[in-house]
Amino acid sequence: MIGVFIKKSFNLVFNLSLLIIILTIAIILNGSNNIEKIFLESFTRDAFSNFFKILILSSSFFVLNSSKTFIIDNNLAKFEYPIIVLLSILGMFFMVSSNDIILFYLGLELQSLSLYILASIDRDNLRSSESGIKYFVLSALSSGLLLYGCSLLYGFTGSTNFDLIAEQLNKENTGAVFAMVFILVGLAFKVSAVPFHMWTPDVYEGAPTSITSFFAVVPKVAGLAVLIKFMFIPFSNILAEWQTIIIFISIASMILGAIAAIGQINIKRLLAYSSIGHIGYALAGVATGVISGYESAIVYISIYVIMNIGAFSCLYLLKKDNEYKESISDLSGISKKHPILALSFLVILFSLAGVPPLGGFFAKFYVFSAVIEQKMYTLAIIGLLTTVISAFYYLKIIKTIYFDDSVMTFDVTKNKIAQFSIFVSCSILLTFFLYPSVLNNLVDTLFIK
Amino acid sequence: MNFPILSTLIFLPLISSFFIFLSKEQKNNNSAIYISLFSSLATFLLSLFVWHSLDLTSAEFQFLEEKAWINDFIKFKLGVDGISILFIVLTTFITPICIISCINSVKNRVKEFLIAILVLETFMIGVFCSLDLVVFYLFFEAGLIPMFLIIGVWGGPKRVYSAFKFFLFTLLGSVLMLVAIIAIYWITGTTDVTQIYEIKIPKNYQNLLWLAFFSSFAVKMPMWPVHTWLPDAHVEAPTAGSVILAAILLKMAGYGFLRFSLPMFPLASEYFTPLIFMLSIIAIIYTSLVALMQEDMKKLIAYSSVAHMGYVTLGIFTFTKQGIEGSIFQMISHGLISAALFLCVGVVYDRLHSRMISTYGGLISYLPKYSFLFIVFALAGLGLPGTSGFLGEFLILAGTFQKNYLASMIGTFGVVLGAAYMLWLIKRVIFGNTNNVEIKNLNDINNLESLMLIILALLIILFGFYPAPLIDTVNISVDNLINNYTIAIQNSGVN
Description:
heterodimer; A: mainly alpha; two-stranded antiparallel ribbon; two-stranded antiparallel sheet; 2% strand; globular; disordered N terminus; B: mainly alpha; 20 helices
């Protein structure tokens, strides 16, 4: 996985990392989906972890690939960059594959430590360093809580293995319920769900865009995977207890994501709030506590990944005089000078808003059909009303792009790779309605019970 | 029928818009207009063919198409019956007219405008063809995107506000419908409309579900008090946008009531009839009064649309044959009349760039052809016998009379108000003194403009004297609708 450490040549290392990612995808695809547990049953390989590994890898591939020009332009081209990304991916692999609290925690820490470095990788930039520190302090706190929860769980159930914990847990075990709360807090922090979201806007804005796009996509996937895994295996017996918490977190995230984003003027900050909202929708699927709900959450996060890769790749094209623009007002009237870029923005933003017939609509449709199946009408109605509110700020960007007069012309960039990512993302979103059940069929095979 | 004719109908405009997207934009090169005109006319002919080959003696859905879509449980199902075919033909008929109208009125970004119109046409035909709730919702909502852009990009000075209001109002209404659609799926196990007709939805669910659908249709219709987006949207939208909005988008809601609310929730429909009657009556009287006081021509026509839609809802919820047929007739005729009126306003707007009534006056002396046509449309709008506007209102009021004496009385009073604002509009715009010197230098309508207006005028008069083609088409379907409805009501009485 990580045999990369030669010379000071960024290009070589970067390309090698991409190659490694592709190779790993190939290896996983070749391997079987049968359940296998190794290392004293602490590490599993099954369809669930394989799916998430592929999702993590392919999204990192696109994120890394399309950010290359940006990295070079901003003098971030250090050879450590791709290596640290790979390290964090390794951490996520352990997270999604772990079947044991200790291994899970180790993976989580490996991932988090790499992310701290990434957030502050632009050392000479005050905002970047600030975001790194901020993320580090808050994240360390949440890791502490999580670890405390893990130790409580061990103390009350006498085991660190997920399957054994699941057998031991029941409603009478009050201590374990406490442990569950602590672990949930830690995980909610990692996926930046309200009320543990405070770091998100600052870090998103402060970190370089290439890092932000990585933050917005990859750790979210891993975090949600682990969250689902925790709910599905160790905590399956105390469903009623965690369900209320998740419902609350989900509603709070949806509302905050919708309302707080309205006033934003920086696109990255706005995307941060929008990602909080999206996590809220995905958690609404988790909150159902049934397999169809988990599946819908997984479908949701996959489509979310596609949309965000497209959105961030668009940001790479907003370049003028070697400076990347991040303010919404800079987008004014780009539809006249850059019709294709504007059209891609249009597709992605309407999809984020969940307007049919784009991919984002189906994501929401699956989640809410799972939610309504469980007769959780309040959650569904609040969720759908927040989509209307959040539609407002997506429309505001579209308004800036299409209705306002143009103020600046961006450089005609030859950033073929970013354009390729945008093209892939938009065409998936546009044609999703032709075969809307592709993802579902895939996800259907993940849960065996 | 193996050839997927309805899919072709739906996706033909979409495919041609893709070609326009690829076509090169050059000065003095109208290839985009030719492509779009050609494709929309082809769609129109195809829809006429569907209408012609439709078996009118059967109430069954025809030209059925089914394709597994979402996880085998939701099917992409299309089909038409007597009611929907009329709306499809209306859509395909109005679209080429819009395209012709934008040759004169849209000056910048013509290519994008045509793409938006054609994409919108795809979604509109889709709404009227779909026989599955999810497919219906998909098309119903998707139409918001092109309309939002049409208002926002090519609209007037307050376009941003109007476009946002239009989008958010409609979206807010529709999300509740989405909840209801999903709930229906979990109650009945299907979203296929024809199957839901047969499975009776339990009574305790019906009221809530009906309200959820109502929230969406009431906004779209628009019914008082959620009609406020309409005048704004109409005023700011470009001519072609207003035409499509008035002629077709508003009809989606009326169609939705007929296709979904009535047959799926008969008990709730009966239960909420007083509510609908009350809102319709308020809409008719209130918006007619508001229309009287307007100084902006487009706003006046927009408010008159709300009043006319009030008649439509009134007619639909009488559950009598006259009422429902009258409503359908009224929708089609209003589609033609309001389209024509907005085009008329567009014609003078292109010349003087003002929609204010006070700008005009005494047009009859300088624009005789235009004035004649304008008077024809305005008279049709007030429901003069001999135009299609009269028949619709007459049938609706006749239907209402059987159900509710009072509603019918007040409704008739609304006709008088309608005559008042329309006649006053004619008086101020066409007759009277010419205060504005610029009017003297105006050119009368050119060939292209007269072509589209004369076609519309002929149709309006034709249907006024000879409504049989429309009535015959819907006859059996409406009979079937009312039969099923009566059976459902009687059964519930027995239990």
